[in-house]
């Protein structure tokens, strides 16, 4: 697998006789090409997308599209082979090329409620998909008998054939104070987003800057002394 991190604007060049499906059209920051090359349409991914507010843009080449990456997120491209069984979160997928097939897998209600995700999408290549994730992508190798426990907020993709269930681990204190975990066993690799939101940790690591901000306010000439 190869990941290519790009800056806050991701440039997508579409060749003649090719097309790209952009699953989050509002992220299109700029477009260059004939206006007729862009066609928006309703997604046909199941009943939950029949509310006429889930759109995709299909852009025919030749054209260039610049896609905005939300602050704090990372854009990556991932090569998908013809035998890939990875199941992705829909919200992490920014675009994929025409010619690839996309299918959906619905999670059981209990798992969907715990993870906040109703469904996963699978792509069959060859081709490259564009992903946006909270922090860079990382991968872990799965084991047939030794489970890997992954924070539900971190898991971006996992092999369809692996065993997946909700769990916690550690002693009683640890299990009482951790988010839900996916317990994964099987073969293949799972993809994780490296950044997990933690408001308390961010506040603690920002303690010094908070003190400086207070001193700048209460100390005479604090704006000069405490930069």
Summarize the model shown.
By secondary structure, this protein is of the alpha+beta class.
Describe this structure in words.
The protein is of the alpha+beta class and 227 residues long. The chain has five helices and 18 strands. The protein has helices at 109-115, 172-176, 199-205, 207-218, 222-225, and strands at 9-14, 19-22, 28-32, 38-42, 55-60, 63-68, 74-80, 86-89, 93-97, 101-106, 119-124, 127-133, 137-141, 148-151, 155-159, 163-167, 181-185, 189-193. Strands 4-5-2-9-12-7 form a six-stranded antiparallel beta sheet, with no helix packed on it. Strands 10-11-8-15-18-13 form a six-stranded antiparallel beta sheet, with no helix packed on it. Strands 1-6-3 form a three-stranded antiparallel beta sheet, with no helix packed on it. It is globular, with a radius of gyration of 21 Å.
Structural class computed from helices and strand pairing: alpha+beta
Shape: globular
Record field, number of beta strands: 18
List SSEs in N-to-C order: EEEEEEEEEEHEEEEEEHEEHHH
Low-confidence stretches: 1-6, 198-207
Helix content: 10-25%
Largest sheet data:
6 strands, antiparallel
Defining key terms:
227 residues; 6-stranded antiparallel beta sheet; 5 helices; disordered N terminus
Q: How do the helices and strands line up, and which of them pair or pack?
A:
Elements: E1 9-14, E2 19-22, E3 28-32, E4 38-42, E5 55-60, E6 63-68, E7 74-80, E8 86-89, E9 93-97, E10 101-106, H1 109-115, E11 119-124, E12 127-133, E13 137-141, E14 148-151, E15 155-159, E16 163-167, H2 172-176, E17 181-185, E18 189-193, H3 199-205, H4 207-218, H5 222-225
Antiparallel strand pairs: 1-6, 2-5, 2-9, 3-6, 4-5, 7-12, 8-11, 8-15, 9-12, 10-11, 13-18, 14-17, 15-18, 16-17
């Amino acid at each position: 697998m190869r990941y290519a991190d790009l800056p806050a604007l991701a440039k997508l060049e579409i060749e003649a006789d090719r097309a790209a499906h952009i699953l989050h059209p509002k992220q299109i920051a700029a477009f260059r090409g004939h206006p007729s090359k862009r066609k928006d349409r309703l997604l046909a991914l199941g009943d939950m997308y029949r509310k006429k507010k889930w759109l995709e843009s299909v852009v025919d080449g030749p054209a260039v599209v610049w896609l905005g990456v939300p602050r704090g997120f990372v854009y990556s491209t991932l090569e998908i082979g013809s035998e890939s069984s990875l199941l992705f979160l829909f919200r992490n997928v920014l675009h994929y090329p025409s010619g690839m097939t996309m299918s959906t897998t619905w999670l059981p209600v209990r798992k969907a409620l715990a993870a906040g995700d109703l469904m996963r999408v699978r792509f069959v290549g060859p081709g490259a998909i564009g992903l946006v994730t909270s922090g860079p992508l990382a991968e872990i190798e799965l084991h047939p008998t030794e489970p890997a426990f992954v924070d539900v907020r971190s898991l971006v993709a996992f092999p369809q054939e692996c065993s997946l269930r909700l769990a916690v681990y550690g002693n009683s204190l640890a299990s009482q104070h951790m988010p839900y975990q996916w317990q994964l066993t099987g073969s293949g690799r799972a993809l994780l987003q490296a950044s997990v939101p933690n408001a308390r940790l961010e506040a603690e690591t920002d303690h010094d800057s908070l003190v400086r901000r207070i001193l700048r306010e209460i100390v005479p000439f604090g704006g000069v002394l405490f930069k």
